[in-house]
Automatic annotation (TrEMBL):
Protein name in UniProt: Glutathione binding-like protein
Organism: Sphingomonas cremea
InterPro entries: Glutathione-S-Trfase_C-like, Glutathione-S-Trfase_C_sf, Glutathione_S-Trfase, Glutathione_S-Trfase_N, GST_C, Thioredoxin-like_sf
Transmembrane segments: none
Domain GST N-terminal: 1-81
Domain GST C-terminal: start-end pairs: 84-197
PROSITE patterns assigned to the protein according to its UniProt record, in alphabetical order: GST_CTER, GST_NTER
Amino acid sequence: MKLYYSPGACSIATRISLHDAGIPAEYEQVDLKAKVTERGDDYLAINPAGAVPMLVLDDGQAVTENVAILTLIAERAPKLGIDGPLGQIRLIEMLSYLSTELHAAFKPYFHATSEDEKEKAAEAVGVRLNLLASKFGDPYLLGSHFTVVDAYFFAMLRWAREFGIDLPTPFPAYFDRLSDRSAVRQSLLEEGLASPLIAA
Ligand SMILES: N[C@@H](CCC(=O)N[C@@H](CS)C(=O)NCC(=O)O)C(=O)O
């Protein structure tokens, strides 16, 4: 497998999940502004959407979209998914919420042209974090064990910290717990990111 990623981007959720699952992979960095990979390849020729993550499977098939990639990893490493009749549905339900609601609410932070837009984004992120706090499974987002959902949420909690957005209870302690996980530490190190525990 090969993951196209950018340091600190949402693609870190895939890296964390692959490490947690013990699935070996190659990693190639993408310059998202220039749309060029670290090998000098035109990323738009590889992925016309120009976004990370993109996961290329061992048979050469490429999978894009966080929801699809993380579902695939949970399918291959069931410990990162949810059991039971509605298990996969619950996983996709939360991945979709994170993608279409929370991740989307952060976009102005990356593209905003005015402080007003950023303030509105902070409010939108806050509303969604509060909703997630009210549904928190304890000790992980969906309940008793770490899933790909936590890996995706970690990427966004990290952004919230970076952008100075307050995390509602129980997320500060949950974030510290996730940060201490070996797959998370390894992923941060590999992407050249400072420990969030030190940065916090
Ligand atoms: N719909 C995609 C969006 C992924 C996405 O927004 N990736 C960001 C990094 S977190 C990106 O690559 N942005 C650069 C761009 O879209 O040009 C998904 O959910 O996987």
